[in-house]
Amino acid sequence: MPNGRFFRLALDKEIFSLAWPVIISNLLQTVTMFVDLLMVGQLGHEALAAVGLGSQVLFFIWAIMMGLSTGTIAIVARRSGEGDTNRADNVLKQSVVLGVLISIPVALLGSFFGYQMLSVFGAEEQVVSLGYEYISLLFLASPAIFVFFIASSALRGVGDTKTPLYVSALLNLINFIMNYCLIFGNFGFPQLGVRGAALGTTIAFAISLLVYVILLRRKSSRIHLKREGAYFTLDTIRSILHIGTPSALEQALIQFGFVVYIAFIVSFGTEALAAHNIGARIQSLAFMPGFGFAIATTTMVGQSLGSKEPDKAEKSGWEGSKLSFITMTSTGLLMVILADPISKLFTTDNIVLALSNDWIALLALATPAVGIHFTMAGGLQGAGDTRWPLYVSFIGLYIVRLPLAYFLGFMTPLGVQGVWLSMSLEYYVRAAIITNRFRKGKWKKISV
Q1: Contact 384/78 with Cβ under 8 angstroms?
Q2: Residue 1 banded pLDDT, cuts 50, 70, 90
Q3: Coil, helix or strand for 159?
Q4: CB atoms within 10 A of CB 32
Q5: Each residue of 400-417: pLDDT tens digit?
């Protein structure tokens, strides 16, 4: 294998070619979320807080989807690197079947018990009621949403990050149009408020999933969703769950920790929660480059190990981390510069605006560490080492962030700003631990 500067440049180019469609795809999605939030914000800060609260519950339950997606991309990337397209196709089909079977009870659970889940946060009754209007419909859409993300992961696993970009662009366009119509009752549609935002998103996912099915049935696709062949084989399902379960547990632990974290913020009032939700949308936007490089690194590591090139797999991890660090640090600086004008798009409330600006500045502090953590974790997941990201998330959230958030928020004059600061500090601990794990190289010996 070639060494030196030219190899690194070629590797950087390959990583960028995989990463930029993921970054743009998620930027489009986040911009659409921004617009949705602007629309919902016109209904009042209670509606704004309700959508943010509902999103936390959805992400907690949908952690299973994240696990299936991780298992899918890791195994598909390994089979793709081995040149075994038939087995890659089979992984996709069985991931879809598994996703549908798991998402049905998830949909029922969320629809029937969503109100009780929201009540755990201790928010005002109006916020909880509006939040339930939002999540009850989206939970019923879980099967379509699960399969949508599994299809995206499978395509990225074979190195096709452009098709998910195009489908995501379609999804976001439909979501924007339907939300504009259904939230406010434009163009003869009923005025549904917060429920209209959920219905618009549901329609967008359903149409986009249909597009995915059509594309994955075409011969030109790098991976195919076939009718023929087994729908369930024990070895494949075991492999998906073996890799995906730790990732699902990681996401569940993260989201449960976020429940406690959000409860801390709720105790400082609705204004603090509204400010947090504005910052959370900006966080989603700012973290997208790191996520894009993480997906690219996951694919590169998985394919390199599949083609028996462990040295290339390791170099992919380090180069991806370097590029992510540079990009995320630049993003953090941009956040500080644009914090005030962006916040003013969402609210005219001076208290919410001031709190939002503080939150965004503290988020910017975390961005360099986030870039490293995301990419190193992506490299480990691409190798099938999904347990260590789980351990690191547990340590970071439960041993560092939550105790620190309680101390800084309630035992010092910092208040809610102290709660936010704990997250920024936590990511530096995560980055240090996950980088050390990657450096040791034990992940190269994991069989998938």
Answers
A1: yes
A2: very low
A3: coil
A4: 21
A5: 999 999 999 999 999 999
What does the DSSP assignment read for 231-292? S--HHHHHHHHHHHHHHHHHHHHHHHHHHHHHHHHHTT-HHHHHHHHHHHHHHHHHTHHHHH
Q: What is the pLDDT of residue 277?
A: 82
If you ran DSSP here, which 8-state letter would residue 219 be given? T
Look-up of token digits 């419909």: 137
Q: Count CB-CB contacts under 10 A for residue 310.
A: 16
pLDDT above 70 for 7: no
Tokens 């005030």 sit on residue: 340
Tokens of 68: 């299936």
Task: Please tell me the distance from the alpha carbon of residue 27 to that of residue 12, in angstroms, as a whole number.
Answer: 21
Q: Cα dist. 75→135, 234, 390 in Å?
A: 32, 15, 18
Amino acid letter, 260:
V
User: Residue 408's Cα: distance from chain center in Å?
Assistant: 27
Rounding to the nearest 10 degrees, give the CA dihedral for residues 143, 146, 152, 155.
-80
5 confidence band (pLDDT: 50, 70, 90) = low
Greater confidence (45 vs 109) lies with 109
Determine the 3-state secondary structure of 309 from DSSP: coil
Distance in angstroms (rounded) separating the CA atoms of residues 109 and 221: 35
